Amino acid sequence: MKLIVKLGLAIVLVFSFAACGNSEKDKKEDLRLDDYGSQPKKEKVETDNTSQDSGDPLANKGIGPVKSIELPADINAEMATNGADIFKKMCSACHKMDKKFVGPAIAGVTERRSPEWIMNMILNPEEMIKKDPIAKKLLIESNMAVMANQGLKEDEARAIVEYFRQYDVQE
What we know:
Structural class: mainly alpha
CATH topology of the domain at 77-169: Cytochrome Bc1 Complex, Chain D, domain 2
CATH class of the domain at 77-169: Mainly Alpha
Number of strands: 0
Order of helices and strands: HHHHHHHHH
CATH superfamily of the domain at 77-169: Cytochrome c-like domain
Shape: elongated
Mean pLDDT: 80
Distance between the termini: 88 Å
C-alpha cells in the first residue's frame, strides 16, 4: 500500500513539474535582471537659467524666493542663537557641523555658497534639487538622500544663515 501511494505521489509530482513553465510563450516573457539593466533609462532633466552655473558657486543664488540679501559685517548674536536653536530642532538629524552625515557638513558653508543659495536650499529644496547644478551634485554626493522641506519661513532661514556665519567665524 505504501509503495502505491509513493508511486502515485511521484507520478503527480512529475506531471506537475512538466506542466510548469515549459511553453515557448513562458520563455519569451521571462524577465531576467541582466535584461532589465541593459536598457538605459531615459530621464528628462529640467534646467533653469536662474541657477547661474557660471562656475563660481558664490555667484549662484539658487532657485527660490530669496533673490538678494545684504548681510551686515557684524553678526547678529541674537539671530545666530535663534538660528542655532532652529538648526538643532529641524536640521541636525541629517546635518552635522564638522562632518558629512546624511547630508553634507555645514562648517564653511558661508565661504562656499552665497547666502541666497543657502536660504533657497532651506526654503525650496525640491526645486533646487531638480534645477540647481550644485544641489544636484550634493544630492549625488549624499547617496541620493533628498533634503526634506521643513516648512521654515524666510526669517527662520535667515537666522540659520546667521548661525552658520557665526560658526564659520569661530573656526
